[in-house]
């Protein structure tokens, strides 16, 4: 019960943080140096995290490209500072979802879906800084303790309520159960708010533009909206959240981050050019992973976002593939146009000829389609599907 | 509750369980006995004994295995029609799966399988490693191979045969872990699919 009271006091303190008037995020506290786990709970959590990391180090989905890993580490260091980032181990995973996480022992997982969605170093730094904030504040341990306290309390209350003679006690127990669950979810959301505050604190004190943190969430909201629209779902509400929501609503986060960003940092560099250059070797792969997820709205939004600085042959090709895969007759006509744009910009892009050929064959222009497919085979004679394409577009008979 | 009522409900429960068991159990596909796939017109005469999993990936699909689920799975897709997904959709609205289209070409079938796997399992690593024309069910067909890292982090390989008949897709896929299982049972898959006919 004392533990619960302590937990409640901590909760009130956190609520006070959340309710405090928002201004510029304060700088993070001085770095306390290398930390070792304290107490059975934390030692146990670190052991589990160590074991997970051993499995992760050999996992086939880890991208081991030294340049990409070095670059992501560089962005983390530029955000949280060299002393803090030194002990972190970063694993870039080829998983096409928008996510990143950090374990209590300092293992950071960065998903390829995140790298595809952020547009510059400042946006990537904002996400990595947020995750680092969870780590520095040891949030997972605190949450574990809060959950244990809450569920302990409920277990005892259940025993007492079952012994009580009246209906009132059991009704009281039910009310209490929802209240405890609600508080636990609330506690989780407050931890996210605290990590946002810390993340912005790092960004304000670093060299990157802190205003980028809000634009990440604006983009996420726009992407989800585009995805819902294409699927014929109602427009998502970003100002509401479910009882069990793990994070605060995106609209709230965007607004808070805008307020927390240091106005004087607005003129700083956001590193968009450096980011685009570092990601260039991986962009076609990450984009391909995304467009094959059958999420037309989100993929089309992401391609358009990537094309803001200018359309490249690869982006036209991706858009063509996206439309051809959806495969409505109108999509096939559009796809053929996008492939043609890709070919106009780069006449050696073999896959664009393949897409163009298939789209033309399906829209009643088979002879043009066969010409494009033959061009594909000429450019990529050892393509994995060369046999199938050759069947669709047999070589032209030699004139006698 | 009286003892008699208790006994009666216990008996009823046991009876219902006994009736329900054969429906829920995995099946047996005996060597040399012709069977029908998923209530369609696709018939197979297995050259060796196989197991049929009771969990079916979709209405028009069923999975066979030699050693157990996910160790060497042969999945039959029998007569998938236009605008239908290959496997059952978890949520038609929130997480729709790619559909076969009237205009889908045989050469695009590997892409359909790839996008279905990627969407269903949220995986990023899937490659079609080869494809070539190869008759299936006595019709012009495709045989293709692929490799992927599944959502359980295990690298797997696969081979599939497919054909389109009257706009409907008939396909058999073989999925097994890259280490040991794929190479060991690939010939069984090939021999099995050679016996498939359409009546």
Characterise the protein shown here.
The complex is a heterodimer of chains A (400) and B (199). Chain A folds into two domains: 2-267, no CATH class; 307-392, Serine Threonine Protein Phosphatase 5, Tetratricopeptide repeat (Alpha Horseshoe), CATH 1.25.40.10. In chain A, 66% of the residues lie in helices and 3% in strands. Chain A has 18 helices and three strands. Chain A is globular, with a radius of gyration of 26 Å. By secondary structure, chain A is mainly alpha-helical. Chain B has 199 residues and is of the alpha+beta class. Chain B has three helices and eleven strands, in the order αββββββαββββαβ. Chain B has a single domain, classed as Mog1/PsbP, alpha/beta/alpha sandwich (Protein Transport Mog1p, Chain A, 3-Layer(aba) Sandwich). Chain B has helices at residues 3-24, 109-121, 181-194, and strands spanning 27-29, 35-36, 42-44, 50-52, 61-65, 73-80, 126-133, 142-149, 155-165, 168-177, 197-198. Helix content of chain B is 25%, strand content 32%. In chain B, the strands form two sheets. In chain B, strands 1-4-5-6-10-9-8-7 form an eight-stranded antiparallel beta sheet, with helices on both faces. The model of chain B has no long low-confidence stretch (mean pLDDT 91). Chain A binds chain B through residues 55, 59-61, 94-97, 112, 231-233, 289, 292-295, 325, 327, 329, 332, 358, 361-362, 384-385, 387-389, 391-392, and chain B through 93-94, 96-98, 101, 103-108, 110-111, 114-115, 118-119, 122-126, 128-133, 142, 144, 149, 153, 155.
Q: How are the SSEs placed, and which strands pair?
A:
The complex is a heterodimer of chains A (400) and B (199).
Chain A: H1 2-19, H2 39-57, H3 66-80, H4 82-85, E1 89-93, E2 100-102, E3 107-111, H5 112-117, H6 121-136, H7 139-163, H8 167-205, H9 212-230, H10 250-260, H11 272-279, H12 283-291, H13 296-306, H14 313-326, H15 329-345, H16 350-362, H17 366-379, H18 386-392
Parallel strand pairs in A: 1-3
Antiparallel strand pairs in A: 2-3
Helix pairs in contact in A: 1-8, 3-6, 6-8, 6-9, 7-8, 9-10, 9-13, 12-14, 13-14, 14-15, 14-16, 15-16, 16-17, 17-18
Chain B: H1 3-24, E1 27-29, E2 35-36, E3 42-44, E4 50-52, E5 61-65, E6 73-80, H2 109-121, E7 126-133, E8 142-149, E9 155-165, E10 168-177, H3 181-194, E11 197-198
Antiparallel strand pairs in B: 1-4, 2-3, 3-11, 4-5, 5-6, 6-10, 7-8, 8-9, 9-10
């Amino acid at each position: 019960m004392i533990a619960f009271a302590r937990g409640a006091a901590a909760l009130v303190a956190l609520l006070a943080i959340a309710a405090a008037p928002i201004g510029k995020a304060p700088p993070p506290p001085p770095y306390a140096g290398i930390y070792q786990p304290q107490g059975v709970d934390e030692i146990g959590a670190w052991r589990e995290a160590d074991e997970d990391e051993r499995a992760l180090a050999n996992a086939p989905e880890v991208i081991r490209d030294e340049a990409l890993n070095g670059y992501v580490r560089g962005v983390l260091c530029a955000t949280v500072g060299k002393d803090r980032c030194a002990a972190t181990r970063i694993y870039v995973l080829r998983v096409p979802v928008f996510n990143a996480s950090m374990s209590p022992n300092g293992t950071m997982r960065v998903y390829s879906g995140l790298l595809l969605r952020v547009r510059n170093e400042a946006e990537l730094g904002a996400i990595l800084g947020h995750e680092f904030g969870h780590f520095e504040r040891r949030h997972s341990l605190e949450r574990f303790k809060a959950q244990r306290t809450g569920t302990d309390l409920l277990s005892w209350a259940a025993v007492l309520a079952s012994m009580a003679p009246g209906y009132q006690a059991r009704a009281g127990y039910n009310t209490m159960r929802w209240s405890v669950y609600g508080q636990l979810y609330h506690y989780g959301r407050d931890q996210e708010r605290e990590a946002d505050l810390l993340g912005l604190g790092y960004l304000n004190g670093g060299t990157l533009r802190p205003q980028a943190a809000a634009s990440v969430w604006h983009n996420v909201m726009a992407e989800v909206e585009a995805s819902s629209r294409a699927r014929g779902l109602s427009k998502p509400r970003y100002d509401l959240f479910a009882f069990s929501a793990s994070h605060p609503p995106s609209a709230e986060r965007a607004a808070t981050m805008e307020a927390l960003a240091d106005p004087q940092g607005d003129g700083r560099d956001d590193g968009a050019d450096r980011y685009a250059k570092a990601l260039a070797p991986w962009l076609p792969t990450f984009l391909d992973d995304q467009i094959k997820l059958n999420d037309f709205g989100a993929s089309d939004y992401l391609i358009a976002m990537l094309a803001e600085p200018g359309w490249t042959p690869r982006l036209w090709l991706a858009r063509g593939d996206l439309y051809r895969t959806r495969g409505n007759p109108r999509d096939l006509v559009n796809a053929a146009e996008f492939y043609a744009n890709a070919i106009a910009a780069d006449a050696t892009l073999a896959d664009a000829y393949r897409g163009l050929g298939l789209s033309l064959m399906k829209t009643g222009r088979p002879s043009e389609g066969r010409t494009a497919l033959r061009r594909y085979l000429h450019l990529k004679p050892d393509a994995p599907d060369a046999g199938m394409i050759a069947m669709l577009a047999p070589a032209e008979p030699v004139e006698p | 509750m009286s003892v008699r009522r208790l006994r009666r409900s216990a008996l009823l429960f046991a009876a219902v369980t006994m009736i329900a068991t054969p429906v829920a159990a995995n099946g047996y596909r005996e060597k040399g006995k012709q069977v029908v796939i998923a209530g369609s017109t696709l018939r197979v005469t297995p050259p060796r004994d196989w197991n049929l999993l009771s969990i079916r990936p979709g209405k028009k699909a069923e999975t066979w295995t030699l050693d157990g689920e996910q160790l060497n799975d042969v999945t039959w897709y029998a007569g998938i029609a236009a605008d239908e997904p290959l496997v059952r959709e978890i949520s038609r609205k929130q997480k729709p799966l790619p559909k076969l289209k009237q205009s889908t070409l045989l050469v695009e079938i590997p892409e359909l399988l790839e996008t279905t796997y990627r969407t269903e399992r949220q995986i990023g690593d899937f490659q079609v490693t080869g494809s070539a024309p190869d008759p299936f069910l006595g019709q012009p067909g495709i045989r293709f191979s692929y490799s992927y890292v599944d959502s359980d982090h295990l690298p797997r390989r696969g081979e599939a045969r497919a054909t389109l008949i009257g706009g409907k897709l008939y396909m058999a896929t073989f999925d097994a872990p890259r280490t040991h299982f794929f190479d060991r049972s690939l010939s069984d898959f090939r021999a099995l699919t050679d016996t498939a006919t359409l009546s």
